[in-house]
Amino acid sequence: MCLDIDDTLIDFTSAGKRALSLLIGRGDLWPLWERITDWHVARVVAGEIDYASMHHRRTQCFLAEIGVVLEAEDVARFERRRKEVLRSSWRLFDDVLPCLEWLRAADVLIAAVTNASGAHQRAKLADLGLTRFFDHVAIAGEVGAAKPDPVMFHAVCAVLDCDPSEAAHVGDKLHTDAVGARDAGLEGVWLDRTGGDAEVPEGVHVIGGLDELPQLLVSEFARIGVPAQR
């Protein structure tokens, strides 16, 4: 079982919005932050820059976009403060621990699969007590490919010693997570916590919370080897 981290296990968007709003005094710039972050993460995955450089350049670019030009040391100070606030704001969704405990009790191998920074993601998992549940943590910048690239999903399956057809991936992004996994030969599961009205492609499963995942695994994915609930 492969699981995305941000906004699947951890309510990252709420924490990110809170940190950014606190530092800049505005609550409407999260979409801009996400677009700039995605562009810089793609450069990391391509091997053009490392994560440390990405964080600084991303923040510098964002600030410049809103008309704030700072010296390098001031950008670094802003980023350090943002991370401090962010780290203090991380929270698990209520359905995470029961789901992970069920998967572990069912002897299902579990991998965290993320496009974000390895250091920060591992820190989140440790801070929130999730490290013990995972057999593997796959980081895009370390693999050299990012979701939805099939290479990312296949690399995880190779580490877990399973065929893609024997695995499922769950994530909050319809195309990056669910469609990407489906196209890589895994079962793709879209975690739609908000009940959106997006058109769901054929072959993609939808759940509204991780509390629905055990039943989906038992009823739909018997070939993955998940035992029936007792």
UniProtKB/TrEMBL annotation:
GO terms for molecular function: hydrolase activity. InterPro entries: HAD-like_hydrolase, HAD-like_sf, HAD-SF_hydro_IA, HAD_sf. Keywords: Hydrolase, Magnesium. Its cofactor is Mg(2+). The keyword Nuclease does not apply. It comes from the Bacteria. Pfam families: Hydrolase. NCBIfam families: HAD-SF-IA-v1. This is HAD family hydrolase. The lineage of its organism: Bacteria, Bacillati, Actinomycetota, Actinomycetes, Pseudonocardiales.
